[in-house]
Structure formats: C-alpha cells, structure tokens
Amino acid sequence: MSNRPLASAGRLVPLLRAGLIAGIVVAAALYPLVAVTGLGAKATAHAMEQKTNILKTALPAETSYVYAPDGRTVLTMFYEEYRQYTKIESMSPNIQQAIVAAEDNRFYQHHGVDPKGVARAFVSNARSGGVSQGASTITMQYVRMALRDSATTPRDVQEATQQTSLRKVKEMRMAMDIEKHLSKEQILERYLNSAYFGHRAYGIYAASQIFFSKTPATLTPVEAATLAGLVKSPSEYDPITSDQKDATARRNYVLDNMARLGYLSPDAATAAKGQPIKLKLTDPPNDCAAIDGGHRSWGFYCDYLKNWWSSQPAFGENRLERMDKLRRGGYRIVLAVDPKTQAAAEKNVGAQDNTGSPFANGIVVAEPGTGRIKAMAVNRNYSLDLAENPNSSNPEAGPKVKANYPNTVAPLLGGGTLPGYQAGSTFKMFPMLAALNAGMPLSTAYDSPYTYKSAVYDGWAPSNASGAMTGRQTMWSGFGKSVNTYFVQLEEKIGADAGVHLAEQLGLRWRTDVDRDQASPAKVKKWGAFTLGVSDATPLEMANAYAAIAADGRYCEAIPVNSIMNRDGTPATYTTPGGVQREVAKPRCRQVVNADAARAATDAARCPTGDTPAKGSCGGWSTADSVRGTVGRPVAGKTGTTDSTRSAWFVGYTPELAAASFIADPDNPFNAVGDGQSQIPVNAVAQTLRDSLKGQPTRQFTPPSDQIVG
C-alpha cells in the first residue's frame, strides 16, 4: 500500500481553495513581522542560503560501533545521541505511515508549509495569547533538527530551537526551499533518522532497538504507532516509566489517523487499539565501562583506543574535536585485539595475583611488524565504581583518597597520561642496540667489577646486583646476567644520548619532570643511569619497542585497530605531511636500526631466557632461565628490577609476539613489591606467549651475521 493518504478527486478543489485562503490569511498576518525583522535584507538572505546548503547535505550525529576482530561482535558503542542512520527502504511502511499520521496528515499535499495548519495555529495562538499550536510540518521539524545537528556553536543551537516568531518564519522559508531539492521520501528518511523518541533514542533505528529490540524493517502497526506517538512528547507518552495510560491513548490516536488516511482498515485499527503495548527493552552500551563484565580487561583496551583516537589528527584539530567525532561520526571500528591472546593474558595475569592486592600486575602484547596491540590485561576491574575500594596505600594521598583496586579506569598499561613505572634493566636493551647499530660487535668485552666508578659520569659508581657477575663480560653474558658495570662502560663508549635517542625512536616518551630534564639536550650526555632503567615507562611502550627488535629493527607505531570505516563504508584516511593520503588503521612503520643490529640484539637477548644464542655464549647462567622451557620455542627477553625491588619487569618476545609485564603499586611507587614477587612478570609473559602460540608452527630467529658477531 502507498504511504500517501487517499483523497478523492471531489475533495481536491475544496482543499486547494482552503489552502489558498489560509495562505492569504497567513501572509497578511506575517507581513508586519517580516517588515519589522528585516527578513528581506541581503544579509539575512545570504545566511538563509548558507543554512539551506547545509540542510541539503546535513547528516545527523550517528553512533560509532566498536567490534571484536570478527567484525560482527559489538563490544561497545560511543555516542552522545544513540542513532544508526537507516535508509527508508529498510524501514517498515508502518512507521512511515504512522509518523505522517502522528505529525503531519497533509505531508504529501503541501510544499513544506501547510497553509491550513498555519492558519489554524494563528487563530488558536491569537485566542490563547501564547503559543498553543505550532503548525510545524514534518519538513519544518526536519529543518529545525538539521540546524540543531549541524550547529557548531551554542548560539547556533539556540537560534535553531528558540521559540520565537522570527525562528518560525525562517524555518518556513527554509522548509519551502528544501522541498525544491529533496523528495518527500528523502525528507521523511532524514526526519525519521533525526527525531528523538526518548530514552536516548535518536532516530527510528535506536527507537526500534531500545523499545522493541528489533530493526525498523519489522515494526508492526501497533509498534510503529507507539513510537510515532512519542515524538510529540517523549516524556509525557513514555510507555516505559508511566502506567502506559497516556502512551496507549496517544498510540490509539495515531492508529485512528492511520485508518482515516487509508493506511489501515477500520477493522485493523480497532483490533490494533485493543492490544496492550508490549515492550522488549534493550539498553545499548556506551563507552568503555559498558563492556561486558565477563571481559575483565577489555575495558582497559577500549580506554587505550580512546586515548589513541584522541591523539590522531585525522579526526580533528584537538582532543575535544576528535572525541566529538568518535561520539558523533558513525564509525565502524574493528579492534586489533586477538581473543586467544587476550584470554591468555587475562588468565596468566590473574593467576599471579588478584584484585585484592595494591600491586598491579599487567601485561601488553604487541605484534612485530605491524605495531598492532594484541592484548592488554591487568589484575583490576575496569569500572567507575570505586565505592568498595580501600583507601590508597600512599600516605601522602589523604584519608579519603581511594586506591586503584579492585576497580579503576586509570590507564595502568599505558596509552594515557600516567608516566608508568621504573623499568629497571629492561632499558639495557637501548644502549646495547645503539652500540650494535653503530658497528660495535656482540663480542665487545669489558672487565666488569662489582663496583665501577665512571669518569665520564662525574664519579658515579654503580654496583652489580651480585658478586657472581664480576669478570670479563660480552654483550651475551652481560645482557644475560644483567651486569650493571658492563653496561655503564658500554654506554660510556657510545654516549648516553645514543641510547636515549634510540629509545625515543622506538616510541618511549618522558612524562615526568625528572625524566624530561635528564633527556634534555643540556643533560642527556651525562644521563649515565639511563641504562639501569631509572626512567618511567609503560608496558605498552616496552612491548612495542621490543617488538621492533623482533621485526629486524622495523618500528611500527602502536595501534589498537584493524580497520576504521566511515559512516559511508569507506576507510577513514589522513594526509601525511608529504601530501600522501593513507588509511588511519594501516600500520605506520619505519626502519630504526639496521636488520643485522636487531638480529644481534636478539641473539644476546636469548641469554636471559635460558635459550641458546646462535653465535655466542651466555656465560653459564641467566636471570630468567625458566622462560625457554615454559614457552617451548625460541624466545628472547630481559628482566628488570629497581632499587629495593619497588617494581619488577619482564619483556619477552618470539618472532610472532612481544609482551611486557610489570608489577608495581601505581598509588605508591615506594611500596616495594619485594624480591619474592619479581618472578610474577616473568611467568606472566612466558605463560602468555606459550598459550597464545599454542598450535602454531615454531619460527626461528634469524641469526646475526659473522661480521657483527666479531
């Protein structure tokens, strides 16, 4: 059946005559207003033209969806107005007919403004001395909503919605102009995608989902009439919170109009009016805290997505603009997280500790060669509810400050503004890699006493963790045993600045005043303690930095997505400084060190894990010799602890994955985790790599050349 109301030829002439008379009445009534406000002025005409051009193409805000890697499972959404744009072909005729019956019986007869309706409203308002009738057609309502949705300033919003005669006249002019450019079906489609139905439901798709848990294509006449009745006053006719008396009366009014317009037979309308309103409610998730509680750490990954998004120039000039795009742009975002790896990370972090501990044990897994983050897990619940959290362990925090466990939304794993945690000897990788890249061989040897006094660093005298480290060491044995005095001498040779700058090229950022000061041009050459890991870092940074070594020195920016599609189905893109257009979700990689240097670093990094290097000797023992047996395949990595074991780390990698795990108290860095818990990150990484790669073919590391071995 057509959506257009039935009208006999005999009714046509009286209708036209009535419309003409009403138009004359309205013109006479409005003329003084037009003259007084100067609507005919050139400036106003120009503004009207500009706004009309916006209306011809304006699309309302639309919900962005975040999917699991399968591209089908919705994890959460981002929206200020829950809406998914739906073509009119995908809407049931019932809702198209019901909205006409509810809001604008003469929609198919007028040209944007209904003269009869305006005349009626003018008489009614004159009698009441106020605004008792609005006479807004569907087209006029669409104009108002489109101006609101395209507004960029609070003043624009006010002008689009204020209850004044001037706004009404502008609205009429624009409605008539819009009808010259858009068909009735196009206007109805846009209207149904813009209207507010209550309960955060903007547009018919959202309304169908929230009230009936279905798509607009399958709405019955009763359901359609219920939804159409809401547009006039979503709160007054709300069938969820009221006793449904008013909602039912409004629905029945719409059904009667549908019958009067020929959309329903009288018998069908009577039968429909006899049915109760049967709701099937859906509460659509919004933002990261709404992710299914069964995925304890997925909220942290989602939060990383938000922080990453807010730093991407492709989505706006500043953070506010970019987040507005996320909540209004209608993007389809597929995360890079791997469910198998994520499950392994959650299991193995959870096995070491629980959410009742002040010590956060977290892990991040990155993919070499792409920078895609495959897992993020921490022994915390991602939740805004801190009511049951104990007080902070930091004595300087104050008596009312809550701890970050068991619930928190703090970005403990990286990607936000938190500085991270001192990473200890995991930083030894950076001066070693810089030395190898500069041409120094793996066999570079230094006599390494228990304590070494540095002339380069103004008499600074670090010591080793154990007297067993004393002796002549190479890169293999020095790295495997984590010999401080060896690496201070190596750093002296290449310059502290070389290691610092390489770390920066591999994605590390200095977030504390102390670190920024030490990394400054004036002081970086004297930052001897850098090689001992006195700087703060995040597991996100460390996993991705080590992933570059696994990828033969090719660094890729950390990225949380496999794809980002615009609302029109095209990939989201950005333009590089060189003018090249690229997809936002594509890996962004560059060669930081030569491949042979990276392979040599990996050969030395096999020593700490109990693995056997391809070319050299580890010196008989190592700091994490259980890792190779746990992982069950070639693996490299490095342990790291700080003074008094306030934090402990392990970063490990295979050719396929790189993982960084830490344990520390984020609230109080002076609350030492102790030696007894330093094995926790080692186990978390080893077990996560093992479980993630189970069933996959074993890949070998590429050995370094004889030239770099020395």
From TrEMBL:
Matches recorded under Pfam families: Transgly, Transpeptidase
Residue ranges of every copy of the Penicillin-binding protein transpeptidase domain listed in the record: 363-666
A single GO molecular function term of this UniProt record: carboxypeptidase activity
Keyword list, A-Z: Carboxypeptidase, Glycosyltransferase, Hydrolase, Membrane, Multifunctional enzyme, Protease, Transferase, Transmembrane, Transmembrane helix
Top-level taxon in the UniProt lineage: Bacteria
Chemical reaction(s) catalysed: Preferential cleavage: (Ac)2-L-Lys-D-Ala-|-D-Ala. Also transpeptidation of peptidyl-alanyl moieties that are N-acyl substituents of D-alanine; [GlcNAc-(1->4)-Mur2Ac(oyl-L-Ala-gamma-D-Glu-L-Lys-D-Ala-D-Ala)](n)-di-trans,octa-cis-undecaprenyl diphosphate + beta-D-GlcNAc-(1->4)-Mur2Ac(oyl-L-Ala-gamma-D-Glu-L-Lys-D-Ala-D-Ala)-di-trans,octa-cis-undecaprenyl diphosphate = [GlcNAc-(1->4)-Mur2Ac(oyl-L-Ala-gamma-D-Glu-L-Lys-D-Ala-D-Ala)](n+1)-di-trans,octa-cis-undecaprenyl diphosphate + di-trans,octa-cis-undecaprenyl diphosphate + H(+)
Keyword Zinc-finger (UniProt): no
Gene3D superfamilies per the UniProt record, alphabetical: Biosynthetic peptidoglycan transglycosylase-like, DD-peptidase/beta-lactamase superfamily
InterPro entries: Beta-lactam/transpept-like, Glyco_trans_51, Glycosyltr_51/Transpeptidase, Lysozyme-like_dom_sf, PBP_transglycosylase, PCN-bd_Tpept
Keyword Protease set for record: yes
Residue stretches spanning the membrane: 12-34
Residue span, Glycosyl transferase family domain: 75-258
The protein's name in its UniProt record: Membrane peptidoglycan carboxypeptidase
Organism encoding this protein: Micromonospora echinospora (Micromonospora purpurea)
